[in-house]
Amino acid sequence: MTDPLVTTYRAREAQYAALRDAALAHTTRLIEEAGLKVHNITGRLKRPESLADKLRRKPGRYRSLEDVTDLVAVRVITYFESDVAAVSRLLEAHHEVNWEHSVDKSMMHDPDRFGYMGVHYVVRVPPGLEQVMPPATGAAPPMPDLIPAGQHYEVQIRSILQHAWAEIEHDLGYKNREAVPREVQRRFYRLAGLLEMADEEFMALDRLSRDYAATLPERVRTEPDSVFIDAQSIGHLLEVSPVRDLDEAVADALGVPLLTRWPDPERPQRLATLLHYVGVHSVGGLLGELRRNRRDILDFAVRLLPRLPQAWLPAGGARPGTGLVNHALLRACANPSLSPQEIINALDMSGILSTRQMVDTVLETYAEVAGETELDPRHS
């Protein structure tokens, strides 16, 4: 016999689906406007079969659908455990939280606590709240989220690793400690500890990365020899002298603009790769070489680039790091054990011209600049 609440729920399922969509849009907007970076945000609607199972397991507890707090749920998956707290504070600030049915599982984390979950809130949006929230700077006025007045829904907040634990735990059918065979419990505890340690280590790595980026400009200025060539340091160097000055000089000599806003997030890593290939590993070493060899690099670039217009002219100008590319090509040409082809491969220029044709043009230009008359054995 079908429970009357299940029958009522089926009849109203479209309304609950609309609530799910509105709650998802509302939560997504809140997080985006707060500038929080999360892995994903999804919405869920409870299946009638799941509701029926819940009513059978807890007879007499639910008198109406309003008593069932998880018919509609929004799930926020963060990258780090620390972000769970940030999202939680945001939701508390913009919702009425039903604390009787909400729980922060991390606060229940006893030493032998089984499970590794996040925060579950049952919330409702205060009427008119979305109308008074200020829009982000430069953004259009916020649109109403159209959540029906008084409707509540569940919001689950977990880190990626917390989510992995919960999903695997659910799939194995172990929802509490008593359900786990004794011989299996020890392995579960060890795994929970490893995941918690992994979450903490990921947070530490995130802090180290942000600290590295924050101190990078000062370290480049005061102790460049201690700064390693990597994507972040190259990204910074592209904005400052002497790298930016050299790029501007190349662009001016060619009569083209320097594309300072060139949309290629992978370019700093490619430039770092080719510099490592030619033996440049520190920012201090690179800056010294650029200052000593500026005239040669500029001369080589002005001779080479007009001979390979297909490689750069379609972009409409000189890309950031053009000086670094030509410096690396010069070093590769001057060292018989290196190959300009590796520089071209690092820049992912396949399909523009044949790699062999570009290598030959680079070697011919170097021979002209260096005054060499013998054919380079690397030439085809």
UniProtKB/TrEMBL annotation:
InterPro entries: NT_sf, RelA_SpoT. It comes from the Bacteria. Residues 43-180 form the RelA/SpoT domain. SUPFAM superfamilies: Nucleotidyltransferase. This is GTP pyrophosphokinase.
